[in-house]
Amino acid sequence: MQKHGSSYMDPVIRQNPGMNEMHRSDLENRTIMITRPLAQAGRLCRLIETAGGKALLIPVLEIEALTGAADAAHIRSLLKDAEIFIFISANAVHSLLNLDPGASGLLANRTIYAVGGATSRSLLENGLHNVLHAEGTGSESLLELPGLQQDRIHGRVISIVRGKGGRDYLRDQLETRGAQVNYLEVYQRRKPVMDDARLKNIWHQDRPDAIVISSVEGLQNLIDMTHPNDRSTLLKTPLVVISERLSAFALSCGFTSALKISGNASDDGLFAAVLQIFEERQ
């Protein structure tokens, strides 16, 4: 993976060299903390740095794909039974295909839904073209799609491909509509181990002007990873979040500065929300 700060220019930026020039003054000398897992953070970091800002990459989640013949055999049996598949994240796509490369063949003629545009793109890049996704973020938007209404899914078997743990809202809603739902859990999330001195330096020497956060679990990890003496500084830092639910959680944790909700969870949506924070201050 290309690290942020390298000379590599993202294809979207290269094709539109002027797209960030108008925003360069907005992010000049601004430090934006990006908390996404390392493998997912590169493009957003480049967008910020192309606009004159500094991307401070502090992953608050690590993604560990499941491995092993037992896991693969279990998942293969679930794949054969389901008529409809819902992928929660791009991590779910990558982890499933790494665990069972033959899964794409079993999925080829099934109905597939993706939570978010990034998940949809990941499926398309892996040769799966019968993919539907909602324009909004999260399970709530997905549940509004016509193909997931009661008259379309009653009695049908749905597999939700996701990481271990997480909320059961999507499954509960689908079961209420009469579907038979199971989980294909193909990865697990971990809180990274980070040097305390590095975190302390962030709040005392390289304090971010805004933080991009994309999950409740990630935000809780960031709070837990921050020394108690520095949490008041953290709670005063503006946040960019991906949903109303995450915004409400941040407020319940004591965040007091600007909370900007991104229109979607894509890199472009998050970048636009970062810009809005500073544009509104002018």
What's the short version?
By secondary structure, the chain is of the alpha/beta class. It has two domains: 11-61 and 193-279, Rossmann fold (3-Layer(aba) Sandwich); 64-189, Rossmann fold (3-Layer(aba) Sandwich), CATH 3.40.50.
What does this 3D model show about the protein?
By secondary structure, this protein is an alpha/beta fold. The chain has two domains: about 10-60 and about 195-280, Rossmann fold; about 65-190, Rossmann fold. The protein is about 40% helix and about 20% strand. It has 15 helices and eleven strands. The chain has helices spanning about 10-15, 25, 40-50, 70-80, 90-100, 105, 115-125, 140, 150-155, 170-175, 195-205, 215-225, 230-235, 245-255, 265-280, and strands spanning about 30-35, 55, 60-65, 85, 110-115, 130-135, 155-165, 180-190, 210, 240, 260. The strands form two sheets. Strands 3-8-7-4-5-6 form a six-stranded mixed sheet. It has a five-stranded parallel sheet with strand order 2-1-9-10-11, sandwiched between helices. The radius of gyration is 20 Å and the shape is elongated. The two termini are about 35 Å apart.
